[in-house]
Design brief:
D-Maltodextrin-Binding Protein, domain 2, 2 domains, 5-stranded mixed sheet, globular
Length: 337
């Protein structure tokens, strides 16, 4: 029996054991928020829709936050209201962006750590109104992002730092959540920073990006899995977090190999029903990491960008022990053999 088969069988045996123990330990579903409408949230949706969470003995209830739904409204998407919720509960496991995670830990002093990163490279685009021809033309202009410490907001800060500008002085960040491309065209601001799905919408309007940040080749720490160290140390929670990561990793593998799982998720959750648009959006799936380790270089970039690197080290913001356990078992490699 070769090593890959042994590893796979071992994972299956362990999984069957914990299926009983973890489900019985959960009195109610673990609520996991989807904090934006993007391609890097699709692995969790696919894990839910394809029964992968169940396979790993997890009782997970995903929901889109109202803020996420607002961000997704327009720009070619209509988030399904059936999956929008705002429960009054702690986010024990979250899929939120690492930018906000790092900044909130600094401001609040919480004990949350990043366990894995699904958005590990800078993949944002800037679209600008007519008359703005170069990135230098953005100086003194209004550019929209979804917030100061959101992923798009961080991308604006990274742009400013690269150009030697200061946000609030040389360029103004305008928070806006919905119909971002349309509002730029209507003159609410001069330019807009968008992620993958609004990028498809803009290109289908015949627009050309002023800046393609993918070409910069920078690491990033956008969406991923995070939790608190105190929660991880309680009961079976560490194993639960490990199983959640494994389910996410398997969902990524399925998405890369079975496009229809992505099309179904886009239709059901994001309201993207046009097959041509679904196929265009699918092109971004290739960028999802097979091994979503915490993006240490991405964390460092955020510390540098928000000028926290003199006080904090990247190592304070992540825990890669679960990813290392999963990777060293051969589990991930076996998914692609």
């Amino acid at each position: 029996m070769n090593a890959a088969i042994k590893s796979t069988l071992s994972c299956l045996l362990i999984g069957s054991f914990f299926t009983v123990n973890l489900v019985s330990a959960q009195d109610s579903p673990l609520l996991v928020p989807l904090t934006d409408v993007s391609t890097n949230k699709l692995p969790y949706i696919v894990a839910e829709e394809q029964g992968i969470f169940d396979k790993y003995g997890l009782n997970i209830q995903l929901y889109m936050t109202p803020g996420a739904a607002e961000k997704g409204a327009g720009d070619g998407m209509t988030p399904n209201p059936e999956y929008i919720d705002d429960p009054d509960t702690d986010r024990l496991l979250s899929t939120g962006g690492g930018v906000g995670q790092v900044n909130r830990r600094i401001s609040d002093g919480n004990d949350r750590v990043i366990l894995g990163t699904t958005g590990d490279h800078l993949s944002w685009w800037i679209y600008a109104r007519e008359g703005i021809e170069t990135v230098e033309d953005l100086k003194g202009k209004l550019i929209s992002g979804t917030g100061n410490t959101s992923c798009t907001g961080a991308a604006v800060h990274i742009l400013a730092r690269r150009m030697g500008w200061e946000v609030g002085k040389d360029i103004t960040l305008v928070p806006n959540h919905e119909h971002r491309v349309d509002k730029m065209l209507e003159g609410f601001y001069d330019a807009v920073m968008v992620a993958e799905l609004p990028d498809v919408y803009a290109r289908n309007l015949g627009l050309t990006p002023l800046v393609d940040m993918v070409d910069w080749g920078l690491p990033f720490v956008c969406s991923g899995i995070s939790t608190s160290t105190s929660w991880m140390e309680t009961g079976n929670n560490r194993e639960m977090a490990k199983r959640f990561i494994m389910a996410t990793i398997e969902a990524i593998a399925i998405m890369k190999q079975q496009p229809e799982t992505v099309y179904q998720a886009l239709d059901k959750w994001y309201g993207v029903t046009d097959p041509d648009i679904q196929k265009q959006m699918y092109t971004y799936i290739d960028a999802l990491p097979r091994k979503p380790y915490p993006s240490v270089e991405g964390i460092q970039l955020i510390l540098d960008t928000y000028e926290h690197s003199d006080e904090y080290q990247a190592e304070e913001f992540y825990d890669d022990s679960l990813m290392r356990e999963i990777d060293e078992s051969g589990f991930i490699d076996a998914l692609y053999e």
